[in-house]
Specification:
It is built from 16 helices and 18 strands. It is an alpha+beta fold. The protein has an eight-stranded mixed sheet, sandwiched between helices. A four-stranded antiparallel sheet has the order 9-11-13-12. It has a two-stranded antiparallel sheet with strand order 5-10.
Length: 561
């Protein structure tokens, strides 16, 4: 396809919105707030007033997301050029809508089979349900040092495709929530050798491939369909995302139809305008857009060198500042110092993952201490705290963070004991005590992230693993499970039963259980740990997670998936 010349300095949707905002006209169309006028007599809409004035709908001159012919079409073409796609689509429902649309496109008939990495976002499971598809779950490879799962190996993908040649495609997540990744090119090769597309949930990697220090993008690795949350690691408004496609393996016409089904017929123009602006910022500034953010990260790395209590997660054999670009296309220097089949070869420098090397503070406790000093992390688990930097981060942010870590480092022992005696800490300690009683859920800390002892780190809700390297086909659907086929049981009695509800720890939104999945002893133990910790779990009928709904033992289990 011949590439057309584009004017990357244009932001067609944003520019149109600015013109409409400045135009003097009377609105006889929705939305009902009429450019914010509805709030005039009550004192105005405050900081939302400017947003309301730019809040549009499909009228003459504004184009239509579901049949783009003007500014939206031009903006999407500019996005494709920026991100290296053949075609790009704006998403106003986040990566969720993109994942669902891709699955509905590839699995176009009920019963179609998709090979899926087990620890995928809940939107992928929902896509399987909506499609009436069957899933063959494959095991992601764990990093033996951190114990965190990354992505399936090419060997696993090949084995799954050989076992199930009727599969319509393969779906994986890269990078993971911690910014960890590996080379996707072998997975793309395996898929293409079997004539199927590789679909990638790259929600946390919209910035990939845009700077030499960043890992290569999924598109550059050969993926056919890629979903990115532009709002996560670039500069769009929340819910702003993009879906990128290339190659002949995805039916573009059907994809457009599916997108129109799962996205609102009244898409948010502020979100679309922000996608346009975020793309222009990157398109015009190129790698320079990340200079300030990377400078802030480098300042943190230098500062942590003076705070030996806190360490950074990075691939084995690499230094933190070298870890990012190692898996980018053409990088061979680092390949010589790591096994060719390593699960974890690249770290997003903007996902700064820290831990207390002394083992005194868990990840949960370290997050609590940081928040007390005004630093709000993205998430934590029992060991790690995930700190998200971006092109919008500054060295002042890093100074604030380092100051907080210095305070935490020098806290007096009696103050620490007082904090440990708090109700929240007591709850966590009871969680840790139960985990230790459960066996391998707690691991010894050492001067680097300890190697997992036969199993991945159980306290990361990212580590939701398949029960076999390649599972049997699992049918999904929308038919409700009859209440008479289920019962509610206490968590201590749920092992070896079959789940009849979805349990989704959030964040990161990876289903620990889906309806029809057998509850193993390890999973039952993790449920009790989450319950004792007061973890937020979506999908659970019991908000306190003291009980779980399972199939009755005398019922056919899984038939209503």
């Amino acid at each position: 396809m011949k590439k057309q010349h584009v004017n990357k300095e244009r932001a067609p949707v944003y520019e149109m919105m600015q013109e409409m905002k400045d135009k003097a006209y009377s609105s006889f169309h929705v939305p009902g707030h009429k450019k914010g006028q509805a709030y005039t007599e009550s004192g105005g809409a405050g900081f939302l007033q400017d947003v309301l004035q730019a809040d549009l709908t499909e009228i003459t001159g504004t184009d239509d997301l579901h049949h783009p012919e003007g500014v939206i079409r031009e903006a999407q073409a500019l996005a494709a050029d920026c991100f290296g796609a053949e075609e790009s689509f704006f998403l106003v429902g986040g990566s969720t809508s993109g994942n669902i649309a891709l699955i509905l496109t590839v699995c176009s008939k009920p019963g179609d089979l998709l090979i899926v990495q087990r620890n995928v976002h809940k939107s992928v499971i929902h896509g399987l349900m909506l499609a009436g598809a069957k899933a063959v779950f494959i095991q992601p490879e764990p990093d033996p040092v951190s114990g965190l799962a990354v992505a399936p190996s090419a060997e696993t993908v090949n084995a799954a495709l050989a076992a199930y040649p009727q599969a319509k495609g393969v779906l994986v997540t890269m990078p993971n929530y911690y910014g960890m990744g590996s080379d996707l090119a072998p997975l793309a090769e395996a898929c293409h050798q079997h004539g199927v597309p590789l679909l990638v949930d790259e929600a946390h990697g919209a910035h990939y491939g845009q700077h030499p220090r960043l890992p290569g993008s999924a598109l550059a690795s050969g993926a056919d369909g890629v979903v990115q949350s532009t709002h996560k690691m670039l500069a769009a408004l929340t819910m702003g995302a993009m879906l990128h496609v290339q190659g002949p393996r995805i039916d573009r016409g059907l994809l457009r139809q599916r997108l129109a089904m799962v996205q609102s017929s009244s898409p948010s123009y502020p979100i679309m305008g922000s996608l346009d602006l975020a793309r222009r910022l990157l398109h015009v500034q190129g790698a320079g857009a990340f200079t300030a953010g990377l400078t802030a990260v480098d300042a943190l790395v230098r500062g942590l060198a003076e705070l030996p209590r806190f360490k950074l997660l990075h691939p084995q054999g690499q230094q933190p500042q070298d870890a990012a670009g190692a898996a980018s296309a053409g990088s061979t220097a680092q390949a010589a110092i790591r096994p060719p089949t390593a699960a974890y070869t690249a770290q997003d420098p903007f996902k700064v993952v820290i831990y207390d090397d002394t083992g005194v503070l868990s990840g949960y406790e370290l997050q609590e201490r940081l928040e007390a000093y005004g630093c709000v992390p993205e998430m934590s688990d029992d060991r790690y705290v995930v700190l998200v930097y971006s092109l919008g981060s500054t060295e002042e942010d890093t100074r604030h963070l380092l100051d907080a870590l210095r305070h935490i480092t020098v806290e007096k022992a009696d103050a620490q004991r007082s904090a440990d005696a708090s109700p929240a800490a007591e709850s966590r300690h009871s969680v840790q005590a139960e985990a230790e009683a459960e066996g391998d859920l707690r691991q010894t800390r050492a001067s680097s992230p300890p190697k997992s002892q036969g199993s991945p780190a159980e306290f990361s809700t990212w580590n939701i693993l398949a029960q076999a390297t390649v599972s049997e086909p699992i049918p999904f659907g929308l038919q409700p499970i009859p209440a008479e086929d289920t019962e509610r049981v206490p968590l201590q009695d749920c092992a070896d039963r079959t789940a009849a509800e979805m349990i989704i720890p959030y964040p990161p939104g990876i289903p620990l259980l889906y309806p029809g999945e057998r509850i193993t002893e390890d999973t039952a133990a993790r449920l009790r740990v989450l319950s004792n910790a007061g973890a937020k779990c979506q999908g659970a009928a019991d908000p306190n997670l003291l009980t779980i709904i399972v199939y009755k033992k005398n019922r056919k289990q899984g038939s209503h998936l």
